[in-house]
Design goal:
With about 100 residues, this protein is of the alpha+beta class. It is built from 3 helices and 4 strands; from the N terminus they run H-H-H-E-E-E-E. Helix content is about 35%, strand content about 25%.
Length: about 100
């Protein structure tokens, strides 16, 4: 078994990964991703990191921008997440 923490490259790789993640997501998004939770205003890429890839998606374009209904499977109780211009506006469970 390899002890990664004694590998001289480990700290470098972890630091680079952390730097890239922090450049893509806010601190709040990272915390929610790690907890597997969503919040209003979260970006769609952060949502997929937190909940995984959806099973379906319906998109439309209106005067207020791009709208999506993002449907998750049974692992998320069939929840639907609603977004506007790439950010979560609400979500509901299938029930």
């Amino acid at each position: 078994m390899v002890d990664h923490q004694t590998n001289p490259r480990y700290a470098s790789v972890v630091g680079e990964f952390k730097s890239r993640v922090e450049s893509l997501y806010t601190k709040k998004e990272i915390a929610y991703i790690l907890d597997g939770k969503l919040f209003i205003g979260m970006t769609e890429p952060a949502m997929e990191c937190a909940w995984g890839i959806p099973v379906d998606r319906k998109e439309s374009r209106g005067t207020w921008g791009d709208h999506s209904e993002i449907i998750y499977g049974e692992e998320r109780d069939g929840a639907t997440v609603f977004t506007e211009n790439g950010r979560i506006t609400s979500w509901r469970s299938k029930d």
